Amino acid sequence: GIPVVQGTLGDEAIGIAALFVLFVNIVQATLGVYVAAAGRKSPWGSFASVFKLPLIYAFALAFVVRALDISVPDMIFSPISKIGDAAIPLAQVVLGIQLTTIKMGHGEYGQLFTIGAIRLLISPLAGIGLAWLLGLDGIVRQALIIQSAMPTAVNAGLLAVQFDLKPSFVAGAILVTTVASAATLTVLIGW
Q: What pLDDT, in 10s, does the model give residues 18-75?
């Protein structure tokens, strides 16, 4: 979503979009992991799953480093940065593998339509409502609304694979919302 916000609103919107992505990633890495694990584990086991992912420790460490204004030496930062740069391409490879295995049951096509409608129609309306409730305007409002209208993230596919929660179906949802978002984002951005 950050490149779409940047391309639409300019470089000054990158920080705003990044904060939104950070918030969503924190929720997904905690509550999302807990809920995903809850389908197969006890409440305590689901809670423990949150702490089995390195992302939660990366968030905590990043906040400490930023809060204490610690300068990270280049010999440490450079390899970490390269690993971070590889995350999205690796996630796309996993998604590609899942797309080759899509097998939908009869009722799942309707569910995909519902997911697409929620993600691409209801979410932007919720973003508009949230922006109004918070009294946001200008570039902050626009960035929030655009980010809320983005398709289902590849991260959802990674969670589905990790917790064996219909990864093929989730890959289908990512595919459908990504393709359909070309139309919905065009309309939203033009509005």
A: 998 888 888 988 998 999 888 788 899 999 998 988 888 888 898 899 999 999 899 9
Residue labelled with tokens 């139309």: 183
**Reported pTM:** 0.77
Structure tokens at 164: 């064996």
CB 171 within 8 A of CB 102: yes
Burial class of residue 27 in the structure, from the number of CB atoms within 10 Å of its CB (0-12 exposed, 13-18 middle, 19+ buried): exposed
Do 121 and 184 form a contact (C-beta atoms < 8 A)? yes
Q: Which residues of 113-151 are buried (b: 16+ CB within 10 A; e: fewer)?
A: eebbeebbeebbeebbeebeeeebeebbbbbbbbbbbbb
What the block records as the tokens of 56 is 């939660």
What's the start-to-end Cα distance of the chain, in Å?
A: 18
What are 10's two structure tokens?
Answer: 């300019």
Residue 126's pLDDT band (cuts 50, 70, 90): very high
* The two three-digit tokens of residue 177, written as one number: 């919302």
On whether the CB atoms of residues 171 and 98 are closer than 8 A, the answer is: yes
Tokens of 168: 């093929």
4-11 LR contacts (CB < 8 Å, sep 24+): 4/146, 4/150, 4/185, 5/143, 5/146, 5/147, 8/142, 8/146, 8/189, 9/139, 9/142, 9/143, 9/146
